[in-house]
Amino acid sequence: MSSIKWITYSGILFGAIGMVCGFWMITSPGEERKKNIIKSLPEANPLRMEETRRLTALQLRVLKEAAETDDNITRRYSK
């Protein structure tokens, strides 16, 4: 009797996994849609990408300075 339960539960589990994989394949975008999504990202614009890099560099510089000192550096940048 326990082998029938095991087979039934295994079938249900594999069926559920198969359904999830099927839905994933149906709902995932195709190659053309992926290319359109990438083109519409803000980072696709070279000016926006350069601005993002500059801001990231500034943030990293402030974090590095904060890590190297014991002072409260937030008072310097809040004015």
Automatic annotation (TrEMBL):
Topological relation to the membrane, as annotated: Single-pass membrane protein
Species whose genome carries this gene: Huso huso
UniProt KW Membrane keyword: yes
Primary localization class, coarse: mitochondrion
Domain of life: Eukaryota
Keywords from the UniProt entry: ATP synthesis, Membrane, Mitochondrion, Mitochondrion inner membrane, Transmembrane, Transmembrane helix
Transmembrane residue ranges: 6-26
Function: Required for the assembly of the ubiquinol-cytochrome c reductase complex (mitochondrial respiratory chain complex III or cytochrome b-c1 complex), mediating cytochrome b recruitment and probably stabilization within the complex. Thereby, plays an important role in ATP production by mitochondria. Cardiolipin-binding protein, it may also control the cardiolipin composition of mitochondria membranes and their morphology.
Protein name (record): Ubiquinol-cytochrome-c reductase complex assembly factor 3
